[in-house]
## 1
Amino acid sequence: MKFLPALTLSIALCCPALRAQEAAKARYLDPAVSVDERVEDLLPRLTLEEKLGLIHADSKFSTAGVPRLGIPKMWMSDGPHGVREEISLNSWRPAGRTDDFVTWMPASILLASTWNPELGMAYGGVIADEARMRNKHIMLGPGVNIQRTPLNGRTFEYLGEDPWLASRMAIGTIRGMQAGDVAACVKHFAVNNQEVERGRVNVEVDERTLREIYLPAFEAAVREAGVLSFMGAYNKFRGQHCCHNDYLLNKVLKDEWGFRGLVMSDWGGTHTTDEAVRAGLDLEMGSRGAYDDYKLARSFREGIERGEYPMALLDDKVRRCLRVLFAIKGVDGRPAGSQNTRAHQATARKVAEEGMVLLKNANALLPLDLTKIKRIAVIGDNAVRTQAHGGQSSEIKAFYEITPLAGLLAHVDGRADITHSLGVLAPKYRRLEALTYDVTGAAQTNEEPAPAPESTLNPAELADRAVAAAKEADVVIFVAGLNHERHNDTESSDRLSLELPYGQPELIARITAVNPRTVVVLVAGSPVAMDPWLEKVPAVLQAWYAGMEGGNVLASILFGDINPSGRLPCTFPRKLTDNPAHASGLARHYPGEAGTVHYDEGLLVGYRWNDAKNVEPLFPFGYGLSYTTFDYSGLKIAAGGDAGALATVELEVSNTGARAGAEVVQVYLEPVAPAVPRPVQELKGFAKVLLQPGEKRTVRIPLGARAFSYYSVERKAWVADAGEYRINVGHSSRELKVRGAFKLTTAVETR
Ligand code: BGC
């Protein structure tokens, strides 16, 4: 008798007419019923084993589902730059399929450089379409960890150093993804700011800094974007691993922010059954060994059977997992997906167009005028290196990838001669067939440089040839930077220094000595040092990792079809010790001493440090040039505004040059005589405006209560003290064009 309902139901599911009838009885199958009611209807129908099957992996990227009740397996995929290559069910070995060549979107740091949350929406929409095509329910992104150190190997996967910018860009991406019936998974919660010792290191950061710097993007993901899932971080926070961290997951995320979705572990980030059960984890992924040996499998079941764990603990996890599945219509059938469409490629291109950042353009060398150029020497390993399939979990098997050289060749199309010289020998490390993760979460990679054929190339000869080509050319385009190999921009290791590797600085110096008309393009996902070569180079473009259309976009910007409008989402320091995590040079601050890293710099992360300590950056946060110029005028600050704003900043921006271009108007708030120590100024609003030559537009930027607030640890609340605030508006954190003030007459407290 006990199994009868289940049996009739599974028969019913085979036949649409019966299924419809059954749906009338089984409320969980009825799409018209609310998600919560469907979950409550389904929960009592599940056996203990079935419940457990929903909260731990049954392959590298899935959970079991409940086939007899029509509950599908839930599939996940990395994230965040596209839908990752299919791997084998139970190992990291590529599955060798041919249907997983996909749209490769620009890296997250480039997306952040667009300062355009609407592009975040479009970006998320592409990911969702392609995820549905591949039957993925949860996409593992966006990554929103704040850039504390430029050496973090995963800087390229994140959204920069500022909580407001990162929040706005994350919200856009999550909304775009979830509007496409795919759950976003915001990661890695929290304070996962380095790859060195990532599985073991303990982070100590004061509460106020945690709230003001490291949590806002996560909080906005929950409260403003309604994100459906979270991934814990590998590291510890205040002594407890983040994938089962009572304070972060139970107290802050679930109790305070009211998060009702699921928290999954990072792959291999679950350590003990007791903590996994009690400290906020809902779904265990990527642990080692047999799936039944997972902490949320047999040992949890035994604990329940012994009466050690109440069933309510299990039911809460199951509810959360089911909520996500129902919310994205995972049980009802989602609209068909699509892959590699022209529209997806156009979005990849648009994002790249708005995210590359022009750092230097002396004597208006750029845009290049093809009518005056006969020979172009393209130099550099990054001119020809494909980047999509690197960096570890964020790797993408790209449908195609336009390298910088390919983009330049296509654009120039025979109108000038183009030569290419490698110039440097960038060692290529052997790609491991199968990456495995140990319990610390560190992937096992092979650090040995590959043997021949690379070894037949002679670095000195390569450099000489490049110099000779540069001498002959009318203009040199040196595509320099980093790549996704170990100790570059990659998961599992941090960079070892801020310098460009492989002798690139020396080669740039030699090249500019023979040809001063040299443009340096930086293909890199994190800031690099540019002293002393920057002085000698008239033009520098930060191209980041620009996705499958990157080479085409690069050519469009260099030759002026596109006017660059990206702005830096992070400070570029002159030298490593100008960064707060490295200023002291002490292991205590990076990468940690006796297993703990102390964020003693507190709130002074990124530009907040430069402002407080008077450290001149190489390029400041928010910086980026255009081929046109902008003027700011008529600043007014009025009380009140849309959506409960406390104040609204209004000003006029005009394009004073001869070309159309987009300006990013940035609003920094500076408390005058604050009652508690505060950063000199902080970004609290921005707007990107496209202006035709001569066009003038009014820009309005609202400032909510949070913009004025600091986090009061005593009051456990956000407090905006009454008093005077300077409002600095400008083109970057260091190029403030107009300044005003606003007096907040009454204090405001929010939670
Ligand atoms: C990474 C995650 C990723 C997961 C699955 C981990 O190593 O930290 O960001 O989503 O692997 O590939």
## 2
Amino acid sequence: MEQRFDLVIIGGGPAGYEAALEAAKYKMKTALIEKDEIGGTCLNRGCIPTKTLLHSCELYAQMKKSSVFGVHGDEIRYSMEEIQGRKDEVLETLRDGIRALMKKNRITVYDGRGRILDANHVEVCAEEAMAPEVFLETRRILIASGSVPAVPPIPGIRLPNVLTSDELLDKKDVFPALTIIGGGVIGMEFAAIYSALGCKVTVIEFLDRILANMDREISQNLKMILKKRGVDIFTGARVEEIVADGSGRLICRYREKDVLQEVVSDGILAAVGRRAYTEGLFSDAFVCKEEADVNMPAGKLFIKTDRGRICVDNFGRTSVPDIYAAGDVTGGAMLAHAATAQAVNAVCHMAEKEPVFSVKCIPGCVYTDPEIAGVGMTQDEAKKEGLHVIVKKYPMSANGKSVLSAQERGFVKVIADEESRRVLGAQMMCARASDMISQFTAAIVNGLTLEQMASVIYPHPTFCEGIGESVRV
Ligand code: NAD
């Protein structure tokens, strides 16, 4: 059975399903192939489940200190099973929403694994052996196959209870003590979840600070806040091996300033990054490597890759005409919103339309308490580039909404070009930072100056007033 399409998309995450919806706008006959659940990593194993768990944890933490607000409860407790149950309900609701959108937009969804035979043919192999294979002929292909957690080559990494975020997200009980390898975004969000639930958390980070890509002051502040909540954080420390102690616990050995140290816990989370997922994606007609060379067999199609990631140009085109790629599989920020933007822009290119998104300025958020968000340049990056910049900082302890909700900890920092006064970057660590960062993103994308941002009236009392104050100080 062969079906014909204008576009076949492999992967049903935020790159894949948003690309399908964009293609529907241009009346492209589109197929979407997904081997697992629709929604991809973001909906099933990433953004949405972690934020749902974090929401429960924050509520629990707030209820424990509700007497500050004059509200008293008797027994405050949580059930991880019920928290997980609610999370599963949220995921199902959102998956239903995407499925309905696919149907409404007449996008054909195939359950199975997509394998690219050549630039215009894809086969769908059903995961169940009994189901028949389907062959699709298509004008173009968009690869949106995403990423999977990287498993570091540490001895003992395959021991029971050494988990990746995929596995820990579904755990129906809470480890009394958890060691997290990696102080990046995943490590910090899980440290926030598990410490709020009363688990003893230890973070071991190889670099000299946690959240190494964010503003230095934010890293230091978060480290301090988590320490106060009982989280032990060791930086400049490399995990060397994990061993079982014989009584069901795990010993994690790490080297810190040339001294071998160890921490004992019930579970270990490996959060050391993610890698592009391309397993089984290409037939033998393709050669995937960093450079095409003279030894390449004749007639083979060359897909340029970089450490396993599929290389694309500014339009999302791979090295094979008519094959595009977007999202985590291409490396980069590995963020859901970046994936959507790349994928939608790729479809615009196919349809000969102007790109929708400006992908040069991608905001990043960390959903700890307080939240962290950043966009554009940090102060350190501006300094490294030798730019003359103005740095403005506003403490949220002076913001009414923050004080009345007892969330006054944090600040908003703005970096602007000294001469043009255009905003170059912003970093925030405060309540609702993830919602508020968009105002700075809009300012950077549109080349606004500090004065133009300050000319906007912010309603009172709101957290957003912190933005207005930060550009005026
Ligand atoms: P990451 O690259 O952000 O952090 C991994 C950290 O592990 C690094 O700081 C690294 O130095 C450290 N590390 C590696 N090997 C180590 C070792 N042997 N011992 C000690 N430390 C070691 O990766 P992540 O946190 O796993 O996140 C993966 C991707 O998912 C990122 O691209 C991230 O942006 C994305 N993500 C985003 C969000 C969000 O937007 N809120 C949430 C989760 C994940």
